[in-house]
Design goal:
Length: 379
């Protein structure tokens, strides 16, 4: 008996920030994807890395939702929404704007059918370093998360929508002159377990990206074994190759390279980071494209299927040899190769067509009442 659960493979739209929504939908079909996780970042946001805005979110209506569902059904694609920002730290005005944008996306997801159409809303939580630098700083961040997200999760629950947190530490999100590279609360499994204990609602869960654990020398298979699989709604398909650099030997694999005086570093012949993201010793990759990576995808998929995970595998293309080339062709090749790599692991073999996905579900048009936009101060 087969253990395959016929998971769909989606693409994350951040790799196609220069394309319109219509162009994006066409490309998704051409590379062989079954859905799109639409990045819908604030147009006036401060984040610059790996962002895109593929939906006109202002004054979004039920008619807009109907049109969007029709467009995706015509293309045979599923969809979700996401904007990954700091919700509990950073400059206060930006923080509140990020919270209000998350509420806006939850409302849009509701109009799109929410959980009934598997339309989730992806987000970061972020980290408050003013609290984090204090004694018991991690607990204080957990408490701040509970304060901010309790009403947000309740709002999502009331609208039939699930929020999903990604586990990226956002290790380059602060200046390299700071010692810590921990900038997003749900970056480790312990934090996510604690978060669910603090807010027991089923209206929040996670997107798990194994690449973030690999460079921290943590086995993603063991993480899946220990997590509450009912919380897992998405898997990001991205991996890393841990580099064998001089800097890794000098600074080790557990801690980031630290900022020191440049002339001193030259005199001592010590490697220092060249930019804020150049602090750990790894390279983002797509499985099956451009060489081997440091992850066993057979074991990873096997444990997911053993645990009963049937959700989408979402390809997040941040690969140096694909998305980072700025070539649309190389970006497309990365997605196409990755889907071919995953096909035998996820899909059944058809004697005439090869490995094919065969479980497409049409998006339904929900019967929902109009819900006005709400801001965090009104929850």
């Amino acid at each position: 008996m087969s253990t395959k659960l016929n998971n769909p493979v989606w693409i994350m739209s951040s790799a196609y920030d220069k394309l319109s929504l219509d162009q994006l939908i066409d490309v998704a079909g051409s590379v062989g994807a079954q859905g799109i996780d639409l990045c819908v970042f604030r147009k006036d946001g401060s984040r610059e890395d790996h962002t895109a805005t593929h939906l006109n979110y202002e004054n979004f209506s039920r008619d807009d939702a109907k049109f969007l569902l029709e467009r995706f059904n015509t293309a045979g694609l599923g969809l979700s929404l996401g904007a990954f920002e700091n919700m509990i730290g950073g400059e206060q005005q930006e923080r509140i704007a990020n919270q209000n944008h998350l509420l806006r996306l939850i409302r849009i997801a509701h109009f799109l059918g929410g959980d009934s159409n598997d339309v989730k809303v992806g987000t970061f939580v972020g980290y408050n370093h003013e609290m984090g630098d204090q004694i018991d700083g991690f607990q204080k961040n957990l408490d701040e998360y509970q304060r901010v997200f309790t009403p947000i999760v309740k709002y999502a629950e009331d609208l039939g929508v699930t929020i999903v947190y990604e586990n990226c530490p956002m290790e380059g999100w602060r200046s390299a002159r700071y010692t810590s590279t921990y900038n997003n609360l749900p970056a480790v499994l312990a934090a996510r377990k604690l978060m669910y204990a603090m807010i027991p609602s089923n209206a929040h869960g996670e997107i798990y990206d194994p690449s973030h654990d690999i460079w921290q020398n943590n086995d993603p298979v063991e993480v899946i074994k220990q997590m509450d699989i009912s919380r897992l709604k998405r898997v990001h398909v991205k991996t890393t190759r841990n580099l064998k650099t001089k800097g890794r030997v000098e600074w080790g694999g557990m801690y980031p390279m630290q900022a020191v005086d440049e002339s001193l570093a030259r005199t001592a012949n010590v490697t220092i980071s060249q930019h804020d993201w150049d602090r750990h010793h790894y390279e983002a990759m797509l499985p099956g494209f451009g060489g081997t990576d440091h992850m066993d995808w057979n074991d990873f998929v096997a444990i997911l299927h053993q645990k009963g995970f049937s959700g989408p595998f979402e390809i997040e293309n941040e690969a140096k040899n694909s998305k980072d080339t700025a070539s649309l062709f190389a970006t497309n090749q990365g997605f196409e190769s990755c889907i071919r790599f995953l096909a035998p692991l996820l899909w059944e073999l058809d004697s005439e067509k090869g490995y094919v996905y065969a479980n497409h579900k049409t998006l339904q048009f929900p019967n929902v009442h109009d819900v006005p936009e709400v801001t965090i101060d009104k929850l």
